[in-house]
Structures are given as structure tokens and as C-alpha cells.
Amino acid sequence: MGAYILRRLLLIIPTLIGIMVINFTLTQFVPGGPIEQVIAQMQGDGDVFRGISGAAGDAGSQSDIGTGNEAYLGARGLPPEFIAQLEKEFGFDKPPLTRFLDMMGNYLRFDFGRSYFRSISVVDLVKEKLPVSITLGLWSTLLAYVISIPLGIRKAVKDGTPFDTWTSGAIIIAYAIPGFLFAVLLMVLFAGGSYWKIFPLRGLTSDNWSDLSLWGKVVDYLWHITLPVVASTIASFATLTLLTKNSFLDEINKQYVITARAKGLTERAVLYGHVFRNAMLIVIAGFPSLFLGVFFGASIIIETIFSLDGLGRLGFEAAVARDYPVIFGTLYVFGVLGLVIGILSDLMYVLVDPRIDFERRAG
């Protein structure tokens, strides 16, 4: 098992390099780079000149990434010397290969540079947004497991009964509803849209958060995250419930279950003493990947609807503004995180069922 983990860890390096090369190459062909963004803002509003120029200066000393387009459509009427200075400040006066190698060298030292337009380091920016995304990802995943596993087991035991039929209908409806539409529905019903104003409309905490007691802070926090978490859970809840049911049905029909029943064991002893461990293998082992999917998947939509300032909105705004230090810095970190999560998923399989031997399969 140690050799298998070592091979997987070594594979992270070429895989991560491939991800970065592909995305960096694509940015070379995307119109409207950061310099064009700066020029467009300057021409649209002269008052932002000083702030944007200062941000560019800060970014130029930290990041050597982005596109190197020479023909800036928004630069008509601006002195060529000024455009050349912007290119130098952003690091675009270097060849693409040099910029890429400089970027990867900085990332290996955990130097992710500074945002072009926010005058803050990428690491500090991610730290600032991380609590929101962790809240959505962690609570949504836990809620999905708490609901889906008991419901899936019950559906497997009651397979073909009216209970299984009507719950399957409800699950299909839940799966068919887009997360953003369900979020809007929750807002309309429970956040003062047209009916009840039970939950707050935006944010993770109230304005008087610092004045609340410890218990008050806990209640206030849970009060704020209820609607976003429920909206984030709906899709994963439906998928996980059906996965649990099908996994249990597959195990219940196997020979060892028939043998256990023939020995006189109660149905509960058969279900939880024999079936549960084998049936839950795929469900429990998929926890890391499910958490990662909820963490990054629907967060941008949910964060936007509920005015939560998390990593989803950060990535979207960085892409729109062509803030390449933020884009590539977060891509690098989350790429590493995703690859490590894949290894953790394999380890979860072994932890749940020691009979699995990845080393033998690899050989």
C-alpha cells in the first residue's frame, strides 16, 4: 500500500503541470487581458487611474503571468510608452514560456503573488473567502449524509412498497430542480420575498455579531446558513440516497445474506451486522470527492444568490476581470487539493474494507 501511495503522490507532479500548462496556454488566446481591463477602466472613468495603476504596480513585482497580447484594442489614443510601462509592471514584457516557468517556480515556494486589482496577496484573499465555502461544503455534505443514508437504507428494505414509490418521486423532483432555482424558491418563501421572513437574506452573520454571547453567535450563524446549505444539499441528497439504496439492494441479494438468514439471525442483525459494512463501502469512500464537489461545484451560484463572499464568487470575479494571479493561484492550490482528495478516497476504501488491495491491482 505504501508503494501505491508513493506512486500516486509522484503522479501529482506531472498531472498538476499538465493542468497548469493547458490553462496557461488557453489564456494566451483569450481576448481582453488584464492590461485591456486596466485601459478600459481608465478610459471609462479617469478617477480610477491612480488606483488601478497602483494595483498594477503592486502586481507587477509579484506575478509574471497572463496573456501577452501586443495589440490592445482599448489603447487607441494612449501613448505607446504608457502601454509598454503597463506591460512591464504586469510582467507581460517577457515571453510566455519565461512567465510560465517563473510562475511555477514561485508556486513551488508557495509564493502566489498579489491580485492585479485588489492590492492584496492571493493567499490572504483566499483566507478571507475560505470560511464561506467551507461552511457551504462541510454542512451541505454532512446534511446530505445524515438524511440520505437512513433514507436510502429504508428504501432498500421497503423496496417496491408505497413508501419506496412516493419517496422516489420526491427524490426525482428534488434532483430535477436546479440548485439556483431552489435557492430562489427558498428566498421567496422564507426570506421575505413574498411570504414569510424567517431567515436572513444575505451574509453569514448579523451586523451585531461581535456583541452577541457565544450561544447567540452559534444561533445567529446557524440562522444565516440554513437556506444556503439547504439549497446546496438538494442535488447531492438525491444522488446519495439512490446510491445508498442501490448499494444495499445489491448486497441484500447476495449469497452470504441468504446464509446469514438461514442461520436464524434477525433481519436487523443481518442488515447492520453483515450488509451495512459492504454496502456502505462506496458511500463512505466517496465522502472526500462529494465534499469537494459541493465545495466548488454549486458554490458560485449559491454564493451569488445569497450574497455570500466565498471562493465561488472570487473565482468568477477574477475570471471576468482577468485577474490572473488569483485565477492561476487558486487553480494550482485546488488542483493539488483535488488530486490529494483522490488519494484520500482510495485510503477510505481500504479503511472501510481492508480486503481491498490497490497494490495487487496495480501489479
The averaged pLDDT comes out at 77
Strand content range: under 5%
CA radius of gyration is: 26 Å
Q: Tally the beta strands.
A: 0
Helix/strand-derived category reads mainly alpha
Instruction: Please trace the helix and strand order, writing H or E for each element.
Output: HHHHHHHHHHHHHHHHH
Low-pLDDT runs: 45-75
Shape: globular
| Percent of residues in helices | over 70%
Straight-line N-to-C gap: 11 Å
* Separate helix tally: 17
Multimer state: single chain
Biggest beta sheet summary: none
Keywords for this structure?
single chain, 363 residues, mainly alpha, 17 helices
How is this structure best described in words?
With 363 residues, this protein is mostly helical. The protein is 72% helix and 0% strand. The chain has helices at 2-27, 34-44, 49-60, 80-90, 96-108, 122-157, 162-176, 179-190, 214-252, 255-262, 267-279, 281-285, 287-296, 299-305, 311-321, 324-352, 358-362. α9 (214-252) packs across α11 and α10 (255-262) runs antiparallel to α11. The N and C termini lie close together (11 Å). The model is unreliable at 45-75 (pLDDT under 50).
